[in-house]
Amino acid sequence: MQKLPDFKGSFPKFKSVDPKVFFKNFDGIALDLLMKMIALDPIKRISMKEAMKHAYFSDILESDYKKYVR
User: Fold this and answer.
1) Cα gap 57→33, rounded to integer Å
2) Residue 13 has pLDDT above 50, yes or no
3) Are 53 and 64 a contacting pair, CB within 8 Å?
4) What is the DSSP string of 10-62?
5) Which of 2, 9, 53, 65 has its CA 20 to 30 A from that of 28?
6) DSSP at 65
7) DSSP summary character for residue 2
């Protein structure tokens, strides 16, 4: 732990919880996008450009989408 000087071994450990418990009103597509957006590992986290291509946003018109893409 010498490489992590601020590490506290006494920090509480939490059990994982199924996200469906907290996001009961989310449909499957919305929950999928959310889970990709909040992934703890940055390598696994979805980028904004990838998120905009997600099925959750499939009802956005191409003309509206282009207004916000750089």
Assistant:
1) 10
2) yes
3) no
4) TSPP-----HHHH-TT--HHHHHHHHHHS-SSTTTSPPHHHHHTSGGGTTS-H
5) 65
6) H
7) T
Looking at residue 68, what is its pLDDT? 72
Q: Which amino acid is at 1?
A: M
Q: Which two tokens stand for residue 39?
A: 């992934």
Q: What is the pLDDT of residues 18-61, one digit of tens each?
A: 888 889 999 999 999 999 999 989 999 999 889 988 999 988 88
Nearest to 67 by CA among 47, 50, 52, 54: 52
Gyration radius of the chain over CA positions: 18
